[in-house]
Specification:
The complex is a heterodimer of chains A (552) and B (236). With 552 residues, chain A is mainly alpha-helical. Chain A has 16 helices and no strands. Chain A has helices spanning 23-27, 32-60, 71-107, 115-137, 151-155, 160-187, 200-232, 245-279, 286-300, 315-343, 352-375, 377-383, 387-417, 423-450, 466-496, 536-540. The longest helix of chain A has 37 residues, at 71-107. Chain B has one domain (34-230): Four Helix Bundle (Hemerythrin (Met), subunit A), CATH 1.20.120.80. Chain B is built from seven helices and no strands. Chain B has helices at 2-14, 26-61, 63-71, 75-100, 104-134, 160-196, 206-230. Classes of the chains: A mainly alpha (552), B mainly alpha (236). The interface between A and B is large, with 45 and 40 residues.
Chain lengths: 552, 236
């Protein structure tokens, strides 16, 4: 690629994007920012695959009869939708893209502590992703993403071992990302950047990493046991051989419940940054928001059995787990109340990232509160395995995690790409996503409460469910448009967008004190932090040189 | 601590060849590497923790059957292996000390002995597996555990299905442990090559230290596996 330099033009500044060219400069990069972009491309790919499955599911449910796909295909559709969206989109989404990009920038480091391990984690993700693709194309899995034994170990004839191995490897990738973050946050902070000056995004990622580190190995070994049981006919989970299928559920949910917090905590970190910036205020109760992330990580490990209230666990255990599940609401509510208090008397700007943050606040609140319904033993029995559960976790994972991801992507897009996205389109997209989301999933609360079970492809014995299902499918279409829009204008902006200034939002935080896009080593000189986090009052204060008239 | 920081600063100024660009000074790089290994070992604790949890559940459910099954394993081989691993931990410690005090030959020899001990462990393990295979104690179609008395309960015999769960756990746990040993041997053969070339100095021998941490961890897992799998019912 030739780079003619006209005499009238200034020499182009070297950034991480143009430092080197060629495929190998990307595939062998150890720059955390480039790896973040690799992740961005790969998870977007899997997002659309997962979305395609979702679309087919919604189309099938448009009519009560099971007419679009066969029952077996439908089982595979919702299984693959879940596996792809959870393991290949949501879990890596914010940590591996925004976290990878921002953690070193926000703490004033040149890179993550282990850049090569960071690249390795992307390769593991890709290997796992290719295995998952191969698994899908050659038949897929039909057990639901939960792999419940003994269905997965003895009865299904689909590709459990391959899918399990793919998830095992992607779990390894997730562990390595978490390990990198923990070590980086502990050891690489810029001088002066104490723990209580850290952005809340960093606190959220620290908490997330702890869950990734302590939870993922357990699901990994569970998958090993399932694979061994299938391949070698061990009897660990098989009741016929004296094994205990409920043990599988314990081990599985020990990871997979905290995994929800892997998805939502980073999103909460994004929301803290966005709300502070667009309210022009220090976040209300900084320490409470920071420690509530840690509290969620800790409580998150103690509530897993609320997925098993109807699986035959002891009623006393169920009582304890129900109580602990209620307890998670406390740190979550602390966050929501503190964000709301931050808005109070703030100078609120309705830019696109803020619209996503508002969307998050509303949708996460609904998702969280319906979680309390599910934590209540009596109601849980009524709504278990109905669309109520489906709606609840989509409010958390899509309404919460995905809104945060999109909001964060908009917020930091100028930093990532060096270009501004078209604000009008972005606001429109945020609105479309919000409307589409509610239209898709709110009817599912009603459906579930009325008793429509999940994972059924045919509800012709209950034709009265159709109207709500039609609404839901219509909403999914709107939602799909809402997701395509950012994809289009982000790509457009990379070429035609206006060049972004270093700090387009006039935001606090170290990542805005370097160029957009940043140079390869992030900062031209090592930053020294002398200010508290979210010092918006100082940023917005009129310059000191102005003289205040005496006597007023 | 103050001393080592000072050393780190001095070498930061000299630009030690092993100092990676994104670290300010060698001390920071060393701390990061060692914290990274400790964090990784925490994930390993959870990995084996899932298996120990499964063991605990079934040990409680099938108490006598587990005792009978455990008794069928050769405890002498297990004890020998325990001794082998404890010795290897000692040689690892000596290797780290040799690296710290710039004794290159001692470092090479200690790493070599560690690897020989690791291989000996795997060899003894292979003999044990072969015995189990010949006794039809490998779970699966040819598994057989008929008429084995439950220790301490005359006239009662172990349920073969429940004994099979013991052997399933035995093979998964010792198998994953052996896999960790093999990975450890891979790491140590790399350390051995590096040490042979004289690449480790008192200032920079982080790989020896964190490789050693990994090796100790794998040994400690065995220290838990040995009593739980071999010794639970050894009274006459």
């Amino acid at each position: 690629m030739s780079m003619p330099i006209a005499t009238t033009q200034p020499v182009e500044r070297e950034t991480y994007l143009n430092a080197k060219y060629g495929v190998w400069s990307w595939l062998l990069t150890t720059d955390h920012k480039r790896i973040a972009l690799l992740y961005l491309i790969s998870i977007t790919f899997f997002f659309f695959i997962g979305g395609f499955f979702a679309l087919l599911i919604r189309l099938e449910l448009l009519t009560p009869a099971g007419d679009l796909v066969q029952a077996d295909t439908y089982n595979k559709l919702f299984t693959m939708h879940g596996m792809v969206m959870i393991f290949f989109f949501l879990i890596p989404s914010i940590p591996a893209v925004l976290g990878n990009f921002l953690v070193p920038l926000m703490i004033g480091a040149k890179d993550l502590a282990f850049p090569r391990i960071n690249l390795l984690s992307w390769y593991l993700y890709i290997i796992a992703g290719l295995m998952m693709l191969h698994c899908m194309l050659t038949g897929g899995v039909d057990t639901g993403w939960t792999f419940y034994a003994p269905l997965s170990t003895n009865f299904t004839n689909t590709k459990i071992v391959e899918a399990g191995l793919a998830i095992f490897i992607s779990g390894f990738s997730s562990i390595l990302t978490g390990l990198n973050f923990v070590v980086t946050i502990h050891r690489m902070r810029a001088p002066g950047l104490t723990w209580s000056r850290l952005p809340l995004f960093i606190w959220a990622h620290y908490a997330t990493s702890i869950i990734q580190l302590l939870g993922t190995p357990v699901v990994a070994v569970t998958i090993v046991l399932v694979a061994a049981e299938r391949a070698l006919h061990l009897g660990i989970f098989d009741p016929k051989l004296g094994g205990d299928p409920v043990l599988f559920q314990h081990l599985f949910w020990f990871y997979s419940h905290p995994a929800v917090y892997i998805m939502i905590l980073p999103s909460m970190g994004v929301i803290s940054e966005v709300i502070a910036c667009f309210s022009r205020k220090r976040i209300f109760g900084y320490h409470f928001v920071a420690f509530s992330s840690i509290a969620i990580a800790v409580f998150g490990f103690l509530v897993w059995a609320h997925h098993m209230f109807v699986a035959g666990i002891s009623v006393y255990a169920a009582l304890v787990f129900s109580f602990l599940s209620y307890a998670v609401a406390v740190p979550s509510a602390i966050k929501v109340f503190n964000w709301t208090a931050t808005l109070y008397k703030g100078s609120i700007h309705y830019d696109a990232p803020m619209l996503y943050a508002f969307g998050f606040l509303g949708l996460f609140s609904v998702g969280g509160l319906t979680g309390l319904f599910l934590a209540a033993l009596g109601i849980n029995v009524h709504v278990t395995d109905t669309y109520f559960v489906v709606a609840h976790f989509h409010y958390i994972m899509v309404g919460g995690a995905l809104m945060g991801y999109l909001g964060g992507l908009h917020f930091w897009w100028p930093k990532i790409s060096g270009r501004l996205y078209p604000e009008g389109w972005a606001r429109l997209a945020a609105l479309v996503v919000f409307i589409g989301f509610n239209l898709t999933f709110f009817p599912q609360f009603l459906l579930g409460y009325m008793g429509m079970p999940r994972r059924y492809y045919d509800y012709s014995h209950m034709p009265e469910f159709q109207i709500l299902n039609v609404l839901s499918t219509a909403g999914a279409t709107v939602l799909g448009v809402g997701y395509l829009l950012p994809m289009v204008y982000f790509l457009w902006s990379m070429r035609y967008g206006k060049p972004a200034p270093d700090n387009p939002w006039n935001a606090a935080g170290l990542e805005w004190k370097t160029a957009s896009p940043p140079p390869t080593f992030n900062f031209d000189e090592e930053p020294v932090v002398t200010w508290e986090a979210y010092n918006y009052e100082e940023l917005d204060a009129p310059p000191r040189t102005q003289e205040v008239p005496v006597g007023r | 601590m103050a001393d080592s920081t000072l050393v780190g600063l001095q070498h930061g100024e000299e630009h030690h060849p092993e100092l990676l660009h994104h670290f300010a000074e060698p001390q920071q790089q060393r701390d990061a590497a060692s914290l990274g290994m400790w964090v990784f070992l925490a994930t390993e604790v959870m990995f084996f923790g899932g298996l120990f949890c499964a063991y605990l559940v079934y040990r409680r459910w099938y108490f006598g059957d587990f005792g009978a099954a455990s008794k069928s394993i050769d405890a002498t081989l297990g004890a020998t292996n325990t001794a082998v691993l404890i010795c290897s931990s000692l040689t690892v410690v000596l290797a780290v000390w040799a690296a710290q005090t710039a004794r290159r030959m001692l470092l090479v020899v200690m790493l070599g002995i560690t690897m020989i001990l690791g291989l000996a462990f795997l060899g003894i393990k292979a003999i044990e597996y072969k015995d189990k295979f010949e006794e039809h104690h490998v779970p699966g179609a040819s598994f057989s555990f008929e008429n084995v008395p439950i220790p301490g309960h005359p006239g009662q015999f172990a349920n073969p299905r429940h004994a099979q769960i013991f052997f399933s756990l035995y093979f998964v746990m010792t198998g994953l442990h052996a896999l960790h040993m093999i990975i450890g041997l891979g790491i140590f053969s790399w350390l051995f090559t590096m040490a042979w070339k004289g690449r480790f100095t008192p200032e920079w021998h982080t790989p020896v230290e964190i490789g050693g941490l990994y090796w100790h961890f794998v040994d400690i897992v065995w220290i838990y596996l040995f009593p739980l799998l071999y010794l639970i019912d050894r009274h006459p």
